[in-house]
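User: What would this chain look like folded?
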Amino acid sequence: MTVKKTVEHKHSGILGEKIELYFAILSGTFFFLGLILDKLTTLPNNYVLLCFIISIISGGWFTVIEAFEKIKKGEFEIDFLMLAAAAGAACINKWGEGALLLFLFSLGHALEHFAMNKARKSIEALGKLSPKKALVKQNNKLIEVSIDELKLNDIIVIKPNTKIAADGIIIKGCSSINQASITGESMPVDKTAITSIQNIKKYKEFNQIPIENVVYTGTINGDSVLEVQVLKLSKDSTISRLVKMVSEVETKKSPTQLVTKKFEKWFVPIVIVLVITLCFAYLVINETFEQSFYRAITVLIAASPCALAISTPSAVLSGVARAAKSGVLIKGGRALEDLGSLTTIAFDKTGTLTEGKPKLTNAIAFNNFDKTKFLELTLEVEGLSNHPLAKAIAKDIGTQYGVVSKNYASNIKAIQGKGISATYKNDTVFIGNSKLMIDQSIIISDNIDLVMNNLLLNGHTAMLVAYKQQVIGLLSVMDLPRVNAKETLTRLKKLGIKKMIMLTGDHQNVANSIALQIGLTGAKGNLLPEDKVIEIQKLKTQNNKVAMVGDGVNDAPAMASSTVGIAMAAAGSDVALETADVALMSDRIDKLPFVIALSRKSKIIIKQNIWISLGVVALLIPITLFGLTSIGYAVLIHEGSTLVVVLNALRLLQFKED
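Assistant: Here's the prediction, encoded as structure tokens.
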């Protein structure tokens, strides 16, 4: 059965969405009743004929409607061929075969629509996750309003264990949020209020707000009350955009679908010409017109590519639906098929393969200076600075070593390009690079210089700490690889990804260090966004198809240039959702092997479906052409193959990565 984009299958009426199935059952009932009356009773043939006619009318009702809509547009498709075959069977007094044809064809249509709707509904169910009402806080009172009436910056109250009504930022309260509907994360995520409402203004984009302060429509609150400031209207919410984009999947046809459509364009006219020619075979060979016409109608049924038409779109829709269920948005058949044939993936570093946050990696005391005192001094001084590295160091000294600030430091000053200075217990402290120490006439021993250079070569950002004009220690920070990055790359390698390369703007030493730690096959540093595009073009020349994995913002040019652009943590990011071909709604890179494996399986299913459909057509045409089978058997085999193809595609809805 063909997938019809221009004709919607919404034959609801008073019997609901299953009316087409009911008509098919009615057709089958009267077909079998006619068969029983013909074989087992002595009733007049008029009763048998009446049963078959009712069966034909019931089975062909919706087929006629759809064929008529197509004919008005000058299109002749499989529906028309099936009606012509049934009419031909009736013309040669084969009412039973005509009834069987339209019964099975209508049943196949109904089951096909049921199967396709099942895949669609697993996507559309996302839209139903959004609550219909919201509690808005106005003048210290709670007013229930429709979510369509919410305005930007409204304050909504989320009660425990209820659905969140809008994308926004938490301004009061903390809770664990179940985000499975958006990101596919199996475990609830801890969320907390932003420290100051004024801080909201400094974020230009929604996706720039720290993820621990953001909530999404349709996710489920935990056991605490939250107050949320609305930052996106219902129509612009992450879940609304997700549903809209996935619903447009069928408009983006896969390469296989495009080839299939081209095949059908010339194949159907050839079949029509062949059938018309066969009607006049009695002029050449020794048989009656009725025999030639019967053969022609049988060949018409055998050659109609019903299963071929549905083979790819059913698999694509099922694959996309399965991905959406796990928090991955795949935009259409082309992206799904391209993912399934990848052997090369390029990665951004920061926030993709790494945590995206600097971590304290070393705190080394020199010259017999007490380690605890060194950590206390460092915490005091770095705690006064607003620099991101200073904040990371202060935080990690507290969490890793349990050191607590006693507020002994003061008078902090930033020294541009070199570091900072401060007063600690009436003496000056300097924290920074070697140039800062040299400028302050502080001696750096060969041993300290060697330790620092080794750390720099291994991708760490290192800085010296001097107190009372003497180097007392060394600190190093690094954006560390994600905990599951190495395991993820190992799984990708097992799936057939041969080349995995990092493209980053960081120093080459940093890139090399991360690549070595997690098992990348290559790394290129010091790249500007336009340089990444050039590298992607080079990879495409060498490897044909290349995926680029990034955050969808500063990596947008490289993602657009790649065969498949894959965005990490796309929930809430308009840029990522628009730019990427595939969007991982959470920041979990371990979702990548799942979606690659799903795409590979989808590609296999598509190939299986095509071979099944073409194989049946290739088998039936010659055996019907030479009169080796009847219309009845041709119908059973032909329509049976269509059902097999649909059921095979639906297996993707249950896909699990091995």
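The mean pLDDT is 82. If you want, I can go into more detail on any region.
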